[in-house]
Design brief:
Helix content is 43%, strand content 15%. By secondary structure, it is of the alpha/beta class. The strands form 4 sheets. It has an 8-stranded mixed β-sheet, sandwiched between helices. Bound molecules: nicotinamide-adenine-dinucleotide and uridine-5'-diphosphate-glucose (UPG). Belongs to the UDP-glucose/GDP-mannose dehydrogenase family.
Length: 452
């Protein structure tokens, strides 16, 4: 099929490249010329494992091109997928990018005579597609929805695993205004063999996306609350508790008596809090949507509150240990909000560094790829903040190291290196990926989230 994708960020680019690799003819549209130029030059504008290899194949096979020309792209495609940002504005969803792109598409459709489906892939609060999007499209095109197709197809990919998640989805949710819109969208996904394609109405599709993110975020805050209790009780380790609780087959289904999900990859890992461009923004948008309906949410309100406190609890524990953090050299192992990405949006590292700076500490941030992104938010300054990709340089004569992002390379640092390099070898494991016994055997003071 011929598909145009409006907005070529994480979601738009991954969608475009993956659909092109399934044989569709894809045009990626972005308003940023530098993004378009990079794509056409077969250089990925974002860091995502496996993406650039697929991009090279997609562009060289002629299945993918990028442009800033929306009109030409919409006229030359059967479906337009909208993947522009829906950022938070004072904790409410900002729909201005959606509105602008819908208007632009509608204006082109005014002069297009064959059937065209407009599909919202961006995350939008329930009833956005069947009210705001529908009204704008009808007004701009001078046509009724029905004559133009309308769908909402939420995206569930995770950064760092985006290609894998897109190519092998657990389910494909298609909210459709009518049967014809649904059938057209279904055709796009006909070669995604193992995923069920679920047909729902537009607003249900929107609610499924928010519910998914709110549930996953709530599981993390729940685990962090249990971690706080474990820290106040000697000899209980939250890692052990959560691991054994989740052996229950209601969390960990079995096939032929074998665990399907043995690594506890189920959002019940306590840590220094969830970050990223989605969980914080989407849970807050759901809270604001809910309040707008006159319902005061309780659980998801607590999810955000616990997440805000979680990085600060870490600092409090350090203060209890060291009395004062003033002048202490503190190494932050990990700046990205999770491994395998250079994205630092809402990363717990930001709250941790800012709080430590307020207390007069000196920061040495380490990350394999997220340093440049972090410098834009917390710039390097010779006195109190510096960054390096090299942990050896950072750890030299440090007072404390805090592991914030579970990059595998940090878990692979030998415990002896901390003892040898640091002034006072104290390690605070904010992701529980280090081996406490090995650290203690190497003479390092080990502190961990969810462990007294
Ligand atoms: N990032 C994720 O992992 C993820 C996963 C699932 C869903 N989502 C949702 O998908 C949406 C997009 O997220 P993202 O992270 O890809 O955003 P992003 O900020 O990375 O990318 C958005 C892109 O849209 C472009 N753009 C904005 N208005 C435009 C217009 N009128 N015409 C052409 N281009 C335009 C911007 O230049 C930018 O490159 C959001 O609603 C987000 O909540 C994101
Ligand atoms: O047990 C866990 C699992 C995750 N996290 C943290 O949660 C955050 C988000 O992680 P993850 O879900 O892997 O990354 P995202 O790329 O933000 O993906 C989420 O947000 C996307 C955007 O909406 C959705 O598409 C995905 O389904 C949803 O998982 C990160 O800071 C993680 O460190 C934990 O603290 N404990």
């Amino acid at each position: 099929m011929k598909i145009s994708i409006i907005g070529t960020g994480y979601v738009g680019l991954v969608t475009g490249i993956c659909l092109a690799s399934k044989g569709h003819k894809v045009i990626c549209i972005d308003k940023k010329q530098e993004v378009v130029d990079k794509i056409n030059a077969m250089v990925s504008p974002i860091y995502e494992p496996g993406l650039e290899e697929l991009l090279i194949k997609a562009v060289s096979s002629g299945n993918l091109i990028a442009t800033t020309n929306l009109e030409h792209s919409v006229l030359n495609s059967e479906v337009s997928i909208i993947a522009v940002g829906t950022p938070a504005n004072n904790d409410e969803i900002d729909l201005s990018y959606i509105e602008k792109s819908v208007w632009e598409i509608g204006s082109v459709l005014k002069n297009k005579n064959c059937y065209h489906v407009v599909c919202v892939k961006s995350t939008v609060v329930p009833a956005t597609s069947d009210t705001i999007v529908k009204n704008l499209l009808e007004k701009a095109s001078d046509k009724m929805i029905g004559e133009i197709g309308l769908a909402m197809n939420p995206e569930f990919l995770r950064e760092g695993k985006a290609v894998e998640d897109f190519m092998y989805p657990d389910r494909i949710v298609i909210g459709a205004h009518d049967h014809r819109s649904f059938e057209t969208m279904k055709n796009i996904y006909k070669d995604f063999f193992n995923a069920p394609i679920l047909h729902v109405n537009l607003r249900t599709a929107e609610m499924i996306k928010y519910t998914s993110n709110a549930l996953l975020a709530t599981l993390i805050s729940f685990s962090n609350e249990i971690a706080a209790l474990c820290e106040k009780t000697k000899n209980i380790d939250v890692k052990e508790v959560m691991e054994y609780v989740t052996l229950d087959k209601r969390f960990n289904p079995r096939i032929d008596k074998q665990l399907v999900n043995p690594g506890m990859n189920n959002y019940l890992k306590a840590g220094c809090g969830f970050g990223g461009s989605c969980f914080p923004k989407d849970v807050k948008a759901l809270i604001s949507y809910s309040k707008g309906l006159g319902y005061q949410p309780q659980i998801i309100d607590a999810t955000i509150k616990i997440n805000k406190e979680q990085p600060l609890r870490l600092i409090k524990r350090l203060e209890e240990k060291l009395i004062s953090l003033k002048g202490k050299k503190i190494v932050i192992l990990g700046l990205a909000f999770k491994p395998d990405t250079d994205d630092i949006r809402e990363s717990p590292a930001i709250a941790i560094i800012n709080s430590l700076l307020e207390k007069g500490a000196l920061i040495h941030g380490v990350d394999p790829i997220a340093i440049e992104s972090m410098k834009k938010v917390i710039p390097e300054d010779k006195k109190s903040v510096s960054y390096t990709p090299d942990y050896v340089t950072a750890l030299k004569s440090a007072d404390v190291a805090i592991l914030v992002t579970s990059w595998p390379e940090f878990a692979a640092i030998p415990p002896e290196a901390f003892n040898k390099l640091m002034k006072t070898p104290i390690v605070l494991d904010g992701r529980r990926v280090l081996d406490k016994k090995a650290f203690e055997a190497a003479g390092v003071v080990y502190m961990g989230i969810g462990l007294a």
